[in-house]
Specification:
Length: 514
């Protein structure tokens, strides 16, 4: 029997929110340090080391709750205590840890002397963790905005870069627009069901027969549009290439991996936990969204010659693959999301880590051709990049292959054969821009004799690149343990049948959720 937590008491809320409280305490301490020591490189590095300690200690606090199998006493009112929360928050924290490690050397090289850089990463991670822990739409929106505001600032943190300023402005304007859709969708769902609690929304839909309710359908539609902006799905992707290209490269990796994973965690919890009983209302819309995102992202990536922009369009295509898992609306789809998000976080942080090594000045101008001959000068760096490209492609023997296979199985289990076929064909198309990177590194000669002389991975960034490449291969050959964890973490995502039968509905349910 796991640890039972009464979330209606202050002590219960403390234990239920322990990881977020630990990270918030560290963030407040780091805020004081940043105000006290902000003079130069050493102060910046000290802030980074503190941020690293904060994230690692938070990860241990989260794992302690997970090991105790902490569960709510009754319906989760505002925050969830389940395996899905623990697994998804682990992914966000690992992504943040690797982002800080990549940043330690990067910010010094690029002369970004802003200790608040690491503070914003901590607060953004708190927002992600709140999103994955949310058992109520209002809490979810609060976490989303905490995360988003921090990432807006991080995008333009290099104040000497005009491209960073442009990217931050675009991201802020379109992000605020998406938040408007999201909050209006939440309001309509509340109007239809009388509650913002995720479990009680499912109860209301089932007991009151709201599957075809017009207000609920409009609310779900606006909710999907808001999340589509956040994950960069086609046709709501227009901000993604410019923002990813203008931001500092470690922050681009953070956005492409952890931020995207957080948005999908929230979307998956809503669709499977709250709206699983009304799947006919939203499944076709998400089906088409997945199709146009997979095809659009891959086709647009084919035309790119700049590596950072190509990876940006690649991330759009991967959003389409993750939407395929959402379409299933099942626990298997949620398990496929957890597996895919973990593998994609590793490969994204690793690939952008290599890009940060081979480029300078924001890496905007690094072309695929510039990697020519990297294997001859820097064989281990080229090998790691080849692993990342093949994993993104879904090549057998890598974690990316197993991740796509798991998503494909979730689609087939939900009788979505056509979507599975489109996923496979889209992955074939992606070979047209992943394989040229490998070919340039191994089959062409360096452009000049001096090429790649400064492409040396040092410090913590070297460990990130090496560890992610090794883990991708390890998971590719031995995926069983990660699959088991993903499956067990998503088993209790569906609302309990007992709650469906006995919990209050309608306006009274709204009061019960408070």
């Amino acid at each position: 029997m796991g640890m039972v937590v009464n979330l209606a008491t202050p002590a219960g809320l403390f234990w239920g929110m322990l990881p977020e409280i630990v990270l918030t305490g560290w963030a407040l301490a780091l805020m004081l340090v940043a105000g006290w020591r902000h003079g130069g490189e050493e102060d910046q590095r000290f802030a980074g080391q503190l941020a690293l300690a904060a994230l690692v200690s938070t990860l241990f606090a989260l794992w302690w709750l997970w090991a105790k199998d902490a569960r709510p006493d009754g319906i989760a009112l505002m925050i969830a205590l389940d395996g899905f929360r623990y697994a998804s928050s682990t992914i966000f924290l690992l992504g943040a840890i690797m982002t800080v490690m990549l940043s330690l050397g990067y910010v010094r090289r690029e002369r970004i002397h802003t200790p608040e850089y690491y503070l914003l990463i901590l607060f953004a991670t708190i927002g992600m963790m709140v999103m994955s822990a949310a058992a109520d739409l209002i809490v979810l929106f609060l976490g989303l905005e905490i995360m988003s505001i921090c990432v807006y600032v991080l995008t333009g943190i290099n104040r000497r870069s005009v491209f960073g300023a442009e990217a931050a402005l675009k991201y802020f304007l379109l992000g605020a627009f998406a938040s408007g859709f999201l909050i209006y969708g939440i309001a309509l769902i509340y109007g239809a069901t009388g509650t913002t609690n995720l479990t009680l929304i499912a109860v209301s839909i089932t007991n009151l027969g709201l599957q075809s309710n017009g207000m609920l359908m409009a609310g779900i539609g606006l909710l999907i549009i808001g999340f589509a902006f956040k994950v960069g799905a086609v046709p709501f992707h227009m901000w993604t290439p410019d923002v990813y290209e203008g931001a500092p490269t470690p922050i681009t990796a953070f956005m492409a991996a952890a931020v995207k994973a957080a948005a999908f965690a929230a979307l998956m919890r809503i669709m499977v936990h709250s709206l699983g009983e009304s799947i006919g209302t939203w499944q076709n819309a998400v089906w088409w969204l997945a199709v146009v995102t997979m095809l659009g992202g891959n086709l647009m990536a084919l035309a790119q010659r700049r590596l950072k922009r190509m990876l940006a369009y690649s991330s759009i295509a991967h959003a389409g693959y993750l939407l395929t898992a959402v379409v299933s609306g099942t626990e298997t789809g949620a398990a496929a999301y957890l597996f895919y998000a973990f593998a994609y976080t590793l490969v994204t942080l690793g690939a952008f880590g290599v890009l940060a090594v081979v480029g300078r000045n924001g890496e905007r101008d690094v072309r695929i051709d510039d990697l020519a001959g990297l294997a001859a000068k820097r064989p281990w760096l080229a090998f790691a990049m080849a692993v990342f490209m093949l994993s993104l492609l879904g090549f057998p023997g890598t974690a990316g292959f197993m991740a796509k296979w798991y998503v494909l199985m979730s689609a087939i289990e939900a009788d979505q054969w056509k979507l599975g076929i489109i996923l496979v064909l889209a992955s074939v198309v992606s070979a047209g821009y992943y394989l040229p990177v490998v070919m340039e590194m191994y089959m062409n000669q360096p452009i000049t004799e001096e090429a790649h002389q400064e492409s040396v991975a040092v410090g913590a960034g070297r460990w990130v690149i090496g560890a992610t490449a090794a883990l991708l291969l390890l998971i590719g050959f031995f995926p069983g343990r990660l699959m088991d964890v993903s499956r067990s973490s998503s088993d209790d995502l569906k609302p309990s049948a007992a709650f469906t039968l006995n919990a209050p509905t309608g306006p009274d349910a709204g009061m019960a959720s408070r």
